[in-house]
């Protein structure tokens, strides 16, 4: 029959006493022989009894070693040290919402316990949080887990799906829009939701709008060429389409070398009416973008005579071929000062959006041809689907359609309907 896992204290004391008496009666009896003899008689394993005897000698000061009291004290200190270390690790993990001051929602605390219960256990976490001013009992935790989801939790789960869909949709958020525009896009689809709710859920989902990075100066002025005066004076406002255009171009590194893209933007609607991508930046680059803008407006039956075309002082925009083309169509050239991006701030904004929403997201590109395809897709989205806060959260196409509906009430095209304007 196997020995019990733990001997009674009374049996231990009696066995020690019997070993001591046996060695007193027979001084030549060794400890090993005594524990074998007595162990067999009292039913204690000899090795266990030998250990008891040695420990008793240590406790009595008859041999060196750690006494029973010291061992118990060390064991208690080690347990306390482990508990303090675990408590510190729990507090460190919970520091994000502990330092906020106010007690977080129970759902947040429960989620924290769920995330760390495998490492620390439920009861230790609850004990540490309670000791530091955030009372929650294990029974409260388990009761919360059994409750049905609240109306807000159900609503958040449904909205999270819609927010993620709108955010990543290539026709809508494109993975670029922030909370403000995602909120607007949801309202356009008939999904009522508060802006703060969108901000909170996007933060929880790790979704954030793209941010424009540092701007680079690419303008190289021609000191010899004649420059037109500045007719804009940093007032980038227009009352109608084709009243003021702003132009600029930028460069984009590709695997096969540098590529360049030029834009022509209508200030009234923020619509990109012309653009061109090339692997070099001669006068043909902005001139082709201008030709596209003229063709787009001419196809729609619009007169561009008198449009002010504002640019920086780059040599491409002061070249004779470019200025002559402007004069042929009756456009008025306007050029800002050298080295001052504020004089062409709106065009710089379009370039910044292009870098942040197209180049950074869809790049890197193998060649100028790949960049051109990506730019084509981005410009279509920019004009047809992107919401612009500067024009009342409309798309450029909607802004122009709205204008022509107002001046021509008989014609009422539906939203998104193809029009000549």
From TrEMBL:
<dbReference type="Pfam" id="PF01527">
    <property type="entry name" value="HTH_Tnp_1"/>
</dbReference>
<dbReference type="InterPro" id="IPR001584">
    <property type="entry name" value="Integrase_cat-core"/>
</dbReference>
<dbReference type="InterPro" id="IPR036388">
    <property type="entry name" value="WH-like_DNA-bd_sf"/>
</dbReference>
<dbReference type="InterPro" id="IPR012337">
    <property type="entry name" value="RNaseH-like_sf"/>
</dbReference>
<dbReference type="Pfam" id="PF00665">
    <property type="entry name" value="rve"/>
</dbReference>
<comment type="function">
    <text>Involved in the transposition of the insertion sequence.</text>
</comment>
<feature type="coiled-coil region">
    <location>
        <begin position="67"/>
        <end position="94"/>
    </location>
</feature>
<dbReference type="InterPro" id="IPR050900">
    <property type="entry name" value="Transposase_IS3/IS150/IS904"/>
</dbReference>
<dbReference type="InterPro" id="IPR009057">
    <property type="entry name" value="Homeodomain-like_sf"/>
</dbReference>
<dbReference type="InterPro" id="IPR036397">
    <property type="entry name" value="RNaseH_sf"/>
</dbReference>
<keyword id="KW-0175">Coiled coil</keyword>
<feature type="domain" description="Integrase catalytic">
    <location>
        <begin position="237"/>
        <end position="404"/>
    </location>
</feature>
<dbReference type="Pfam" id="PF13333">
    <property type="entry name" value="rve_2"/>
</dbReference>
<dbReference type="InterPro" id="IPR002514">
    <property type="entry name" value="Transposase_8"/>
</dbReference>
<dbReference type="InterPro" id="IPR025948">
    <property type="entry name" value="HTH-like_dom"/>
</dbReference>
<dbReference type="Pfam" id="PF13276">
    <property type="entry name" value="HTH_21"/>
</dbReference>
<dbReference type="InterPro" id="IPR048020">
    <property type="entry name" value="Transpos_IS3"/>
</dbReference>
<protein>
    <submittedName>
        <fullName>IS3 family transposase</fullName>
    </submittedName>
</protein>
């Amino acid at each position: 029959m196997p020995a019990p896992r733990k001997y009674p204290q009374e049996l231990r004391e009696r066995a020690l006493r019997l070993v001591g008496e046996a060695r007193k009666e027979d001084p030549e009896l060794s400890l090993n022989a005594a524990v074998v003899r007595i162990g067999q008689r009292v039913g204690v394993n000899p090795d266990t009894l030998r250990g008891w005897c040695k420990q008793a000698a240590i406790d009595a000061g008859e041999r060196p070693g750690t006494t029973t009291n010291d061992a118990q004290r060390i064991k208690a200190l080690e347990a306390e040290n482990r508990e303090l270390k675990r408590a510190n690790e729990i507090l460190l993990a919970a520091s994000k919402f502990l330092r906020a001051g106010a007690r977080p929602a129970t759902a947040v605390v429960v989620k924290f316990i769920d995330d760390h219960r495998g490492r620390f256990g439920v009861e230790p976490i609850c004990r540490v949080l309670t000791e530091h001013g955030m009372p929650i009992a294990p029974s409260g935790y388990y009761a919360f887990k059994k409750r049905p989801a609240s109306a807000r939790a159900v609503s958040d789960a449904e909205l999270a799906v819609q927010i993620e869909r709108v955010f990543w949709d290539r026709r809508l958020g494109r993975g670029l829009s922030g909370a403000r525009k995602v909120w607007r896009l949801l309202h356009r689809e008939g999904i009522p939701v508060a802006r703060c709710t969108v901000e909170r859920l996007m933060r929880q989902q790790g979704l954030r709008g793209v941010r424009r990075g540092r701007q680079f100066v690419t303008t190289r002025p021609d000191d010899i060429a004649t420059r037109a005066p500045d007719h804009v004076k940093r007032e980038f406002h227009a009352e109608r389409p084709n009243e003021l255009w702003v132009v600029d171009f930028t460069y984009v590194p590709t695997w096969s070398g540098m590529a360049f893209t030029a834009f022509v933007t209508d200030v009234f609607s923020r619509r990109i009416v012309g653009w061109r991508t090339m692997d070099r930046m001669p006068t043909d680059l902005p001139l082709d973008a201008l030709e596209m803008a003229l063709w787009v407006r001419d196809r729609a039956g619009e007169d561009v005579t008198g449009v002010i075309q504002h640019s920086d002082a780059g040599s491409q925009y002061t070249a004779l071929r470019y200025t002559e083309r402007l004069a042929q169509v009756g456009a008025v050239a306007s050029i800002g000062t050298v080295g001052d991006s504020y004089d062409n701030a709106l065009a710089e904004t379009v370039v910044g959006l292009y870098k942040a929403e197209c180049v950074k997201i869809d790049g890197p590109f193998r060649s100028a041809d790949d960049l051109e395809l990506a730019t084509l897709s981005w410009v279509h989205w920019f004009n047809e689907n992107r919401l612009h806060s500067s024009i009342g959260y409309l798309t450029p196409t909607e802004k122009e359609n709205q204008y022509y509906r107002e001046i021509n009430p008989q014609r009422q095209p539906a939203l998104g309907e193809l029009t000549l304007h």
